[in-house]
Write a structure and sequence with these properties.
The chain is mainly β and 119 residues long. 0% of the residues lie in helices and 54% in strands.
């Protein structure tokens, strides 16, 4: 089992950059895929980026591709979301999540960190 704490959200101007962090506790961090989701009021959580555990293969939703980068450091049990060229529509609560390799659903969640992009 893994416990996640995400952080780094704040108010940032449009066009700016922001780094979110996800700290994981527990064993075998490298056996978990990590993802970042975001959610706006009245909508479901949307997966925006994902990275596999051992070989670090990334996946991005089209609307963040080229602007967001997901990384991880298995030696520190950390994952990150580097965001640049932020737009007001990126305003959301961002969550990191984890799932064991080869499983479908993400069962472990951070508490969420709020990102507000001002126009």
């Amino acid at each position: 089992q893994v416990k996640l704490v995400d952080s780094g959200g704040r108010l940032v101007p449009a066009g700016g950059s922001l780094n979110l962090s996800c700290a994981a506790s527990g064993r075998s961090f490298s056996t978990y895929d990590i993802a970042w989701f975001r959610q706006t009021p009245g909508k479901d959580r949307d997966l925006i980026a994902r990275i596999t555990g051992a070989d670090f293969r990334p996946f991005y939703k089209d609307y963040v591709k080229g602007r967001f980068t997901i990384t991880r450091d298995n030696t520190k049990n950390m994952a990150y979301l580097h965001m640049m060229s932020l737009k007001p529509e990126d305003t959301a609560v961002y969550y990191c999540a984890a799932r064991r390799q080869f499983e479908i659903s993400f069962d472990y969640w951070g508490q969420g960190t709020e990102v507000t992009v001002s126009s």
